[in-house]
Amino acid sequence: MEDTAGARIEILKAAAEERYKALHIIRERVYNTCTWCLGVFLLVAGWIVQKGDVMGISQRIFLACALVISVVIIRVFYLRDLERGFRAQQRVVVRIEDALGLYQGVYPQEWKNAGSDGSHGNFFRAIHAVLYVGLGIF
Known about the structure:
By secondary structure, the protein is mostly helical. Helices cover about 80% and strands about 0% of the residues. The protein has three helices and no strands. α1 packs parallel to α3 and α2 (about 55-100) packs antiparallel against α3.
């Protein structure tokens, strides 16, 4: 009986470790995507400054629309999909940690809300805000 419980704990610990790695990878992808978007904004702004010619109104409108559409596509499709995966991984981690008994005095109870609508994480909201501010400044 003891071996079965020990094996179960080892399996749960290994599963938690894999979920933690997945969460880290998703965070890194989101961060890199945001960094690349801001870099593209700077690149385009630098190109406009170096170009020297004044852009016509139709060129400005086209460029602004292209950048807005790009950010919307990245935000609506790519980042939303990563956020769904991130929240799903968080919910699995909470169940594993609960099975390991980590919410009985080790972790705060509010951490059990991770990945649910009641969680207070701001990572994705902050990333979206940075993208919007970067686009607005451009």
